[in-house]
Design the sequence.
């Protein structure tokens, strides 16, 4: 294993000079810095994480806090996590993934032990009990999601309210007058998870604005639930011709259920969704959708955190505008 003394010998400097070049704690000349960096590259030296942390008072570790609660769609959560991890590595940081439902106690335990330099927090609730602690921590944080009162916090997410509105506006332009939202599992709404609540707000506001009859149906994320909710929708809204789906695992079984009940898509029923593009475009009937930009959100969350760690001011709120792609699941309402 290459040691710091080997680097010092190759560069013709003292080990303490190599340490200063790595930590930036004392100024050294540019010519000396270049010799040290050249020796590091030639020898393939990698500072020991513990020594590096002692030298810089940094762990070079970020915490990604994503409690895997009931109703969470794990594959989408993992897309966020992969984006956070790959972006963090570009900044020479590792990621500690915290998946337990520990609330304030878990955050405080991690922060108080100096295990991490900063935190990214997901699965944000409108009235999230972790907010007071995050506002008071001496470590920077970024939330993927917007609580009801985001003042004093750094938040980034898709504008889910605008996404719900975009789906309804698309259906309204096509002439649909009776629409329904098949939403997240019931427990997600019980927790007042922010993104799910905001989709409902946008869906309802756009339906009211356009004079559409509308209904919201939370639904368990299971194939058997798709048939039940499809039957319920047609029973309660017999004139239904437009559906918005915000429940990724239910999208394909729901399309299948409507077709098994005798509806043509999009001839009799237009379907839109809020989900990752790759999910919508690879179904048997490609679905018109607002993209869930997991890679962009994860990347930008890390970038915001890196700026905060360097002392750079960042804006508190970053809302990504919805981007809709029209596919084969939507069409004009057919008049009887």
Sequence:
């Amino acid at each position: 294993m290459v040691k710091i003394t080997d680097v010092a010998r190759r560069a013709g400097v003292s080990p303490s000079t190599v340490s200063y070049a790595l930590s930036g704690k004392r100024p050294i000349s540019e010519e000396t810095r270049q010799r040290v960096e050249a020796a590091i590259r030639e020898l393939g030296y990698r500072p020991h994480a513990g020594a590096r942390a002692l030298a810089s008072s940094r762990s070079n570790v970020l915490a990604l806090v994503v409690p895997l609660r009931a109703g969470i769609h794990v594959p989408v959560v993992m897309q966020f996590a992969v984006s956070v991890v790959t972006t963090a590595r570009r900044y020479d940081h590792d990621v500690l993934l915290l998946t337990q439902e520990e609330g304030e106690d878990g955050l405080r335990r991690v922060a108080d032990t100096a295990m991490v330099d900063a935190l990214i927090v997901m699965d944000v609730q409108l009235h999230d009990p972790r907010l007071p602690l995050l506002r008071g921590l001496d470590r920077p944080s970024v939330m993927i999601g917007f609580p009801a009162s985001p003042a004093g916090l750094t938040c980034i997410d898709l504008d889910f309210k605008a996404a719900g509105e975009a789906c309804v506006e698309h259906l309204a332009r096509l002439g649909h007058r009776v629409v329904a939202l098949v939403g997240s599992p019931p427990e997600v709404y019980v927790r007042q998870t922010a993104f799910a609540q905001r989709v409902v707000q946008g869906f309802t506001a756009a339906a009211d604005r356009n004079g559409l009859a509308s209904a919201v149906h939370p639904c368990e994320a299971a194939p058997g639930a798709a048939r039940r909710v499809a039957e319920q929708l047609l029973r309660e809204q017999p004139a239904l011709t437009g559906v918005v789906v915000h429940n990724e695992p239910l999208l394909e079984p729901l399309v299948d259920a409507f077709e098994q009940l005798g509806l043509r898509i999009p001839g009799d029923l237009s379907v839109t969704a809020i989900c990752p593009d790759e999910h919508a475009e690879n179904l048997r009937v490609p679905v018109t959708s607002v993209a869930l930009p997991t890679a962009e959100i994860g990347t930008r969350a890390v970038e915001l955190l890196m700026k905060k760690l360097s002392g750079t001011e960042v804006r508190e709120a970053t809302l990504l505008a919805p981007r809709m792609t029209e596919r084969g699941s939507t069409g004009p309402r057919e008049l009887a």
In short: The longest helix spans residues 74-90. The first strand starts at residue 61 and ends at 65. Residues 50-56 have pLDDT under 50 and may be disordered.
